[in-house]
Design brief:
two-stranded antiparallel sheet, alpha+beta, 90 residues, single chain
């Protein structure tokens, strides 16, 4: 998807076979500015995203972590309850 039009209405695209693969001809407004995309299936939808290089991915992860409030604390039990079971070794 181009940066100029981030939210486009659903559009119809042609599906065709090339060699032994199925392909989709993306309309111009949906073209990617990269040579690779990641693909995932969610229910009956197939989602394509530009593939991020490692440096870009790391920057996004660090930005997401930095977005947490400095006082954020994960609340959890200090100790896990011991389960009664037989030891693995005699």
């Amino acid at each position: 998807m181009t940066a100029a039009a981030p939210n486009l209405a659903p559009t119809t695209a042609k599906v065709f076979i090339t060699g032994r693969s199925q392909a989709v001809r993306l309309p111009k407004a949906f073209r990617f500015a990269t040579s690779e995309v990641t693909i995932e299936r969610q229910g009956d939808a197939v989602i394509l995203r530009p593939k991020l290089d490692n440096a870009t991915w790391a920057q996004q992860v660090l930005a997401a972590v930095a977005a947490f409030d400095s006082g954020f604390k994960l609340e959890r039990a200090d100790e896990w309850p011991q389960s009664d079971r037989e030891p693995l070794l005699p």
